[in-house]
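User: I'm curious what two different proteins look like when written out as structure tokens. Can you demonstrate?

Assistant: Sure. I'll show them one after the other, since each token string lines up with its own sequence. Here's the first protein:
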Amino acid sequence: MENRSLLSLSVALLSFLSPCLTALTPRVSFHMGSPGRHVTRFSSPEVSNTSTLLLSEDEDILYVGARDAVLALDVSHQDAITLRSQLDWSPSDKDLEQCSMKGKEMADCPNFIRVLQFLNTTHIYACGTFAYSPRCSYITSETLMMSMKPDEGRGRCPYDPYQRNTAIIVDGELYTGTVADYRGNRPLISRHLSEGRRVDLKLDDTLGWLEDPTFISSSFIPEEEKIYFFFSEVGREYDFIDKFIVSRVSQICMSDVGGQRTLQRRWTTFAKAQLLCQADNELPYNVLQDIDSLPPAEGAPADDTLFYGIFTSQWSVGWTSIQSFHMFIT
């Protein structure tokens, strides 16, 4: 019964996409350093790999996840970016040695911060690769101090610093798309930090619902109480093409508590659909690279949420397309 329900949900997610914007040019463009286009920069010789960013609600503080560090930058002034505080979080020599014994390059063994999310008004939840042994911790947003000892981050953060992932916290619960082993062979979408009668849930590749995915982003639409995951994966439905990449959007319901029998502690509301970006007489832009969303105007329905995606082609190197689309759930 649970499997039939899951199958019916998988075909209920429909996305209506606008044509790819391949023939258009930007309305405004300028070179770095152009007069009248002031760009404020921050740099430090001790800071690198700043790939994870989190902006405070008042937009005054930018939290930066870097290699072996979490930074809080004051961005409230137009003409300057200053370092407000910094948390150094690096593996010990023993951790680095164990990482090397796994056959990993030492350059890949530091702690690359890959998850930064507000847990509440006072704390940030952070995770890092930590010498191919992921760790997570609670950090005070005001002082960047750890409020407790880091715990295991398996299933919440990738092991490999080159492995893409996504994470979002809603109502104190962490929803992630990442891998569950250091080889990067066990992808999963999961929920963590559940309390009370709610349980942590997951979905992996054992049932064939995920096919070697590359996770890109995640989004929460409050009116629908659903979490959306965006990723690319191998499209098994196109078995006549070897390893054809397909871009996807998937959904899970926040109210999901898992199945009673065959799907215990697993998602029962998971569904996914293809994102198709293809102009006339061109090969498809089938690999999703990044995505962002524009919330609807105040009072407008959730269906008015506009998503912008950057797509590239699996076959045409250097070709990029920007696509805008709405999603409608039936």
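Here's a second, unrelated protein for contrast:
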Amino acid sequence: MQTAMNADARSPMLRRKTRPAAAFAALAQASLARIDACLDPLQRRDDPEDLHQLRIALRQARAVVWAMGPALPRQERDRWKRDLRMLARATSEVRDWDVFLAETIGPARELEPHDPILAAIADTAGQRRDAAREAMLAALATYRDWPLPALHRDLAHLAHLAARARNDGPRLAPFSRQRVRRGRKQLRALAKRARGGDADAMHAQRIAGKRLRYVIEALAPVLPARYTRRLHRKLVKRQASLGQRVDGIVARRLMAECLDLQAMPDDVPPPLPGAS
């Protein structure tokens, strides 16, 4: 299943009888390694794909924390949630501008390469994206000094606790199935809220869907096929459709910023001056 879902080759091998705390220590260690590997190229060069890969690594790590949360001490769980959320937020604005420039402004300029208004919008968007990137790099520069040491210390502590409680508590397989069911229940509730087209509700649904997808990928070795195949395929398909809608909402907001306008309605496509 992992191959079909493009799982990272460095992901730890999980067993059905593994304790959840021990599984978290292994999965979280792999997640920190992925995050660390993404940070080096991000500091050396300005390639939107580097940032995209970092955001994927952060989402994977946050999904693991959510999945294993009930098996973790509250202090460690809350620290991981807070610190990973902080890192994700530091990258979000740059990613929004990258997607806007690549998927909205880029195609429009291909249609109207000499349009001065489009050129001005692209210039404004590029400047704001560069400013956001500088702020992001400043925030990420401190990551290896803090909170990374605290997160590694947590892993050592959790691995020690897991070794001491090797024969206590639930097994990973039933625990994982329970967490997937919990994630599906939450996703259904959010999807119901999003049916009216509310932007915040759709965004929450998209986040929950991505989280459940990454939970399934992380725990694939101990999950049944109805999750790793059928449910995973549904999540990927729905995320593609929902992602287009959410990206459109973000594009309207960024276009309004570039044009110094009030927010645009969410039910119309963003205007592209000069594009026919």
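A detail about the second structure: The longest helix spans residues 74-111.
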